[in-house]
Specification:
The protein is built from ten helices and nine strands. It has helices spanning about 5-10, 35-40, 60-65, 90-100, 135-150, 170-190, 205-210, 230-235, 245-250, 260-275; strands at about 25, 35, 70-75, 105-115, 115-125, 155-160, 195, 215-220, 260. Strands 3-4-5-6-7-8-9 form a seven-stranded mixed β-sheet, sandwiched between helices. Strands 1-2 form a two-stranded antiparallel sheet. Strand 5, helix 5 (about 135-150) and strand 6 form a beta-alpha-beta unit. Helix 5 (about 135-150) runs parallel beside helix 6 (about 170-190) and helix 6 (about 170-190) packs parallel to helix 7. The mean pLDDT is about 90.
């Protein structure tokens, strides 16, 4: 009997314990299969077994979508504060910075896709759920204004499950009207606006700028809507149908234009920009 067989038998009898370092494997939310993290990263954080699309941070999203080294950030000097003196808000902001490497839940700038200049903004779910406070609203508004000023298409990639940010009260709610007005101005000027919705895009973000693209794309299986299914079910006291609020359902009902796998998003954007920009 070789070493492998002896070790295997000892493990079965509970006499040998193998410690596996943390951070090597991820269990898929979609199919529960265990995925080696290097394979997951190589596949742009999409499960190779079932196609489940994992969270992708803003910096990684920009890296896989835009032309290499073409991104230049706007307005990085705008910082959040605590206008209402909300308890522990600063600590939550600090945790968001530590987790994502961003200074807020949105990053905006200019870049190129397939050689076409664009203005781009990304909201990151990892920073307080991608919730929209006054800085996020200001940055999205500035991105729309830059697109009008430079006559470049606007691409906004939304990953915001947090809706409006309760720690900023009415200052946060105002951003829905503010960003919607900026998008209205963009459309009035005839500037192309492409919105890419990722999992999740909910609440005030979905109810304002995220759903108003000239072309609205979404990743497979993304949850999109205003209130979540549990809240809706409890409110109307009815069972929510399977697939409710997922991107495939919204495509079927005409709310979005196309569901695109992550690996095909860049090529899809290039075709759209070459056709319409």
């Amino acid at each position: 009997m070789g070493w492998f067989e002896r070790t295997y038998n000892r493990i079965k009898r509970g006499k040998t314990k193998i410690d596996i370092p943390d951070g090597l494997w991820t269990q898929c939310t979609g199919c529960s299969k265990t995925i080696y993290n290097k394979n997951l990263e190589k596949n742009i954080r999409v499960c190779p077994e079932c196609g489940y699309h994992f969270y992708l941070g803003a910096h990684d999203r920009i890296s896989v979508t835009l032309d290499e080294a073409s991104f230049s950030q706007y307005n990085s000097n705008i910082r959040p504060n605590n206008p209402l003196g909300f308890p522990e808000y600063e600590e939550k902001l600090s945790k968001g910075v530590e987790k994502t490497g961003l200074d807020e839940a949105a990053i905006i700038g200019k870049g190129k896709v397939g050689g076409v200049p664009i203005v781009v903004g990304v909201t990151d779910f990892g920073f307080m759920g991608g919730s929209m406070g006054s800085v996020v609203g200001e940055r999205i508004t500035l991105a729309a204004e830059k697109a009008v000023e430079e006559k470049h298409p606007l691409l906004l990639i939304s990953g915001s499950g947090g809706g409006a940010r309760m720690q900023e009260g009415v200052f946060s709610l105002m951003q829905m009207a503010k960003t919607s007005a900026a998008i209205a101005k963009l459309k009035q000027e005839g500037v192309l606006y492409i919105s890419l919705l990722t999992n999740p895009t909910m609440g005030g973000v979905m109810a304002s700028f995220a759903s108003r693209g000239d072309i609205v794309l979404a990743e497979p299986g993304a949850r999109l809507g205003f209130a979540g299914p549990r809240v809706i079910s409890q409110t109307i006291r009815q069972q929510i149908p399977a697939g409710f609020q997922l991107s495939e359902s919204l495509l079927k009902h005409g709310v979005i234009d196309l569901v695109v796998e992550r690996a095909k998003i860049r090529d899809t954007l290039i075709r759209i920009l070459n056709l319409l920009s």
